[in-house]
Write a structure and sequence with these properties.
Elements (H helix, E strand, L loop, with lengths): L11 H5 L1 H15 L14 H11 L1 H20 L6 E7 L18 E10 L2 H70 L4 H36 L24 H4 L3 H22 L5 E9 L7 E7 L10 H68 L4 H38 L1 H4 L5
Antiparallel strand pairs: 1-2, 2-3, 3-4
Helix pairs in contact: 2-9, 3-5, 4-5, 5-6, 5-8, 5-10, 8-9, 9-10
Keywords: Cell outer membrane, Membrane, Transmembrane, Transmembrane beta strand
Subcellular location: Cell outer membrane
Protein name: TolC family protein
């Protein structure tokens, strides 16, 4: 983490008396309120609104919705019999001799009209429809999985922008304080009450702060663009009130409780169902479809008309190397999908446990910082200023105490963001997992 110096400096503080000490207490007050609990602007986009906008904006979610509709439409079509085939023909037309190109002279010449119909069995048609229904369910499951990811990434982007804005706000406040101290150090140096080293220390602190502000400004721009990417909200973004990260009992629920409805697991289970439906269809496809044909043939007026009836039966002459192999392939695919589901359950269970542990650790760090380290940093700043005014502490030691306090405030912002990441993952999972949603309201 970059470090910088801030706060009052220079012997002029000794001559300013109560005013100098007042600025120190302003500095200390800024450290006394945990960054995660400070009031936010009343207007702006809150986290829930950002996530709702992201769901509406996601092109992939729209694509998966369209895939679901397409598969369901195909399921209806697959359950129907194939369309009949109309056949028109002119058979046995003479091409030479006295009757060439005549359609009524030769007794073998026939003008025919017929209709043919393939007759796939009802069980086969239902199997095809069931396959497309499983495809629709798989697309819907992928939609829910992607929605979970959109919610997670949007929430993380929202918290990241909030942290970036907090850093900029903290640095802006310290920059104003340092600018005043540089002016005071310059005045003290001109009057002979200060030393050139004090002025150099103040200027160095200011420029180091400016360097850190440039970095923080770049991070804020990146975070704002990330949130814009998900929500479509452009320009200067004001964030609403954040949720409390330490008041959600559902984050401690056993990870196994969420696995049956875990979006990633369900998406793979849906693909396994598709594979099993394809295997069922391949088993039925081992028996070929029959077709029937009815044809009426008209000859010359001197001859009688003819009616023909035909049945077509494909011969499975190489079933062992064709249909049986296809069935074996479909069954192997189903086994592969089942294995993926088992692995996904184990991975997801570990992932949830890691999120829970990471969140618990970050919240424990925040509690330690608020209970022990922030009060200690404030006490150190006040004690250092008193010693500096008494002439028993050097300027650099005073600046070091103030630097440590500000760095701690930035560290707290980062730790809070570390807590927000796993919290966002668990919250997104809870939002799209019925079993987890029933544990406790947000």
């Amino acid at each position: 983490m970059s470090r910088f110096l801030c706060g009052p400096c220079g012997p002029s503080w000794r001559s300013r008396g109560p005013g100098a000490l007042a600025l120190v207490f302003v500095f200390v007050l800024g450290l006394s309120v945990p960054m995660g609990l400070r009031a936010q602007a009343p207007s702006g986009i809150d986290r829930s609104a950002a996530m709702a906008a992201a769901l509406q904006r996601s092109g992939l979610l729209k694509a998966l919705q369209a895939e679901t509709r397409a598969a369901r439409e195909m399921a209806v079509a697959a359950a129907q019999r194939p369309d009949p085939v109309l056949r028109l023909s002119l058979d046995n037309l003479p091409v030479n001799g006295a009757d060439r190109w005549r359609t009524t002279r030769d007794f073998m010449t026939m003008r025919s009209i017929g209709i043919a119909q393939a007759l796939p069995g009802r069980d086969k048609r239902e199997a095809r429809a069931r396959w497309y229904e499983r495809e629709a369910q798989a697309a819907h499951a992928r939609h829910r999985e992607q929605a979970t990811e959109v919610l997670r990434l949007t929430s993380v982007a929202w918290f990241a922008l909030r942290a970036a804005q907090q850093r900029l706000g903290l640095l802006a406040a310290q920059r104003e304080s340092l600018q005043r101290q540089v002016l005071a150090a310059e005045a003290a140096a001109r009057s002979g009450r200060g030393t050139p080293s004090d002025l150099l220390a103040a200027r160095d602190a200011l420029w180091r702060l400016e360097q850190l502000r440039i970095e923080a400004d770049a991070r804020e721009r990146v975070a704002r663009q990330a949130l814009e990417r998900w929500t479509g909200v452009q320009g200067q973004i004001t964030l609403g009130e954040p949720p409390r990260l330490d008041e959600a009992a559902w984050v401690e629920e056993p990870s196994r409780r969420w696995l049956d409805e875990h979006p990633a697991v369900q998406a793979l289970q849906a693909r396994a169902e598709v594979a099993r439906a394809a295997a069922d269809l391949a088993h039925l496809e081992r028996d070929p479809d029959w077709s029937v044909e009815l044809m009426l043939s008209q000859r010359g007026s001197a001859y009688s008309d003819m009616l023909s009836v035909g049945v077509s039966i494909p011969l499975a002459s190489n079933r062992a190397r064709r249909q049986d192999r296809e069935l074996s392939a479909r069954l192997a695919e189903a086994d592969a999908r089942d294995a993926e589901v088992d692995e996904a359950r184990r991975v997801s269970e570990l992932e949830i446990a890691e999120w829970q542990q990471a969140l618990a650790a970050a919240l424990a760090q925040l509690e330690l910082i608020d209970r022990e380290r922030l009060p200690l940093a404030r006490q150190r700043v006040v004690a250092s200023m008193a010693a500096y005014r008494a002439g028993t502490l050097s300027l650099r030691e005073l600046l070091a105490a103030q630097e440590a306090a500000v760095v701690l405030s930035i560290e707290r912002i980062d730790v809070e963001l570390d807590a927000a990441r796993p919290w966002s993952a668990l919250d997104a999972l809870r939002s799209t997992t019925p079993a987890a949603s029933n544990t406790q309201a947000r």
